[in-house]
Amino acid sequence: MSVEIIEARDYDIKVGDIFRDLKTYFQGFPYSRYVVFMDENTRKHCYPVFLNQMKDMDIELDPVVIQSGESKKTLKTCEDLWGELTALKADRNSLVINLSGGVLGDMGGFVAATYKRGVRFINLPTSLLSMVDASVGGKLGIDFEGLKNHIGLFQNPQRVYIYPHFLKTLPYRELLSGFAEMLKHGLVADYEYFLQIKNAGRPEEIREDQWEALISSSVMLKNRIVRADPLEQGKRKILNFGHTAGHAIESWSFLSDQPLRHGEAIAVGMIIELYLSVIKTGLEENKAEEIINYLMDMFPYYKVLHDTNPSGLVSYMQQDKKNRNGLLVFSLLEKPGKPRYDIEVEENEVHEAFNKYLNFKK
């Protein structure tokens, strides 16, 4: 693998065979401590690769392991991580290395950004979702009282190093979860890219060299949008397509014994918001149906949602950060590749779109 360098707003994202560049970075910026945040899965599958690559470096790594899962993305886990940093006597010249998926990437960055008013951190994303989504944009945070990413801040890492070979360690559902965000990038920013992903086949059919190219394209698309609007005051809101409904669905599913992965919920959210796009922004119905048919074929019908009360979902949506003056606000599509944001939607329209998902028939 080669290395693709993508310049974000004030840091670089490197994709490919990244370890030589990572060693150069460590040599150029000596830190007092190197604390590696990971969960039990990355500890088993990815940390040995990282250790092997770092074996000729004269640095001491301090591994800190937490339990995986969205349910652990809480203030309590942050307290545990702050406690670990304190026990290690980590000072402001320490480096936090998030060797992790999206949950710990968000939370680990949040912990680093708030410990002693901020220590530096880098991200080595290990899931497809964290590679194409959490790697760009500096959004950090935790869930609170069942609400997704309710507490957080913006803070960029020093670097992001994406090693596509880590995808070999992922179960299929995790691959599919990240795949949803890649499809979203195409729908809001470059429909030709969406078609490229679609034509590449199902995630299990994609070769490693193809993954590297697709991941780089996805990161570049998101990066272009984020650089234009780093604090999400305008255009960056288009990246929320599928997320107003999707975050509500994800939070709702946490109440069941069948919680959805983030990307699975976003896929459902995109379907619901494609229906809303027909109603609110003039998306052609046949084009919406074409995309919906593909998404329904790619992502299973999630039975956990069948008994969901649409009013219950709306109550979660009402907590969404994008809302204003008590009104539900969505990012929708006028056509594929041409999004619109700050679209106000009535509760009954959400009910209608959600019921279309529940009653979907090809």
Short descriptors:
alpha/beta; 19% strand; four-stranded parallel beta sheet; three-stranded mixed beta sheet; 362 residues; 14 helices; single chain
Describe the structure.
By secondary structure, the chain is of the alpha/beta class. The strands form four sheets. The chain has a four-stranded parallel sheet. Strand 5, helix 5 and strand 6 form a beta-alpha-beta unit. The radius of gyration is 20 Å and the shape is globular.
Summarize the helices and strands and which ones pair or pack.
Layout: E1 3-7, E2 12-16, H1 19-28, E3 34-39, H2 40-45, H3 47-54, E4 61-66, H4 75-87, E5 95-100, H5 102-114, E6 120-125, H6 128-134, E7 139-144, E8 147-154, E9 159-162, H7 172-189, H8 191-200, H9 208-228, H10 243-253, H11 262-280, H12 285-298, H13 310-317, E10 328-335, E11 338-345, H14 347-358
Parallel strand pairs: 2-9, 3-4, 3-5, 5-6
Antiparallel strand pairs: 1-2, 7-8, 10-11
